[in-house]
């Protein structure tokens, strides 16, 4: 049972679109990720997903609107809702989501990470 | 589907030891709380609980050790583990835990909140 320091964990990796597991509780994972550029359109069949911006501004595109998420703001994307994260500059985010969540949801492509490291 | 600004939500209440629900996903609640003083010893039979310090320093007492949680740090308290949060100065925290979680866990007392407001 150790506390987690977010800045320390963020300093341990540089790669984009590669979430790292930093905590687990009640079948959910707490993950950190650095994002830059455009991700792919996808949705999650069974998982709601929380995006919390720690640094930078994340643009979350939906089919009918776009939401800008700034530092110290979070957005919950409900299951089934198509979305595409876009980071014009590098963004650091924390994710809360079920341990079963695949980063690219219903799609499989070069962004898909079948295995996530714990840091 | 609206983003949540943490500072804005924190400005909406002042009371201590009274968590407010600010998000829900996958059967879990995201809550904000302001803490000051000593809480009671308790544990949660079935729920792991995440404490994330947004402002101040939270002292989490366990039967065999004490952990100081500073800003931008979090600690996961596993189910079954007795703990007592202590805030010498006011602390703002975000909690992530199952919707079923009672704030005083296995105990019932003047701190118990059977109903939590959504803000």
TrEMBL record, chains A, B:
Protein name according to UniProt: Cupin type-2 domain-containing protein
A Pfam family hit: Cupin_2
Organism from which the protein derives: Algoriphagus sanaruensis
Domain Cupin type-2 residues, every copy: 36-92
Coiled-coil regions listed in the entry: none
């Amino acid at each position: 049972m150790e506390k987690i320091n977010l800045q320390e964990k963020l300093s341990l990796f540089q790669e984009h679109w590669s979430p790292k597991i930093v905590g687990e509780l009640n079948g959910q994972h707490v993950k950190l990720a650095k994002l830059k550029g455009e991700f792919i359109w996808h949705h999650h069949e069974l998982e709601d997903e929380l995006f919390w911006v720690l640094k930078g501004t994340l643009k979350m595109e939906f089919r009918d609107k776009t939401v800008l998420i700034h530092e110290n703001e979070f957005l919950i994307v409900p299951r089934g809702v198509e979305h595409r994260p876009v980071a014009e500059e590098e963004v650091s985010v924390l994710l809360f989501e079920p341990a079963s969540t695949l980063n690219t949801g219903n799609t499989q492509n070069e962004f898909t990470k079948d295995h996530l490291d714990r840091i």
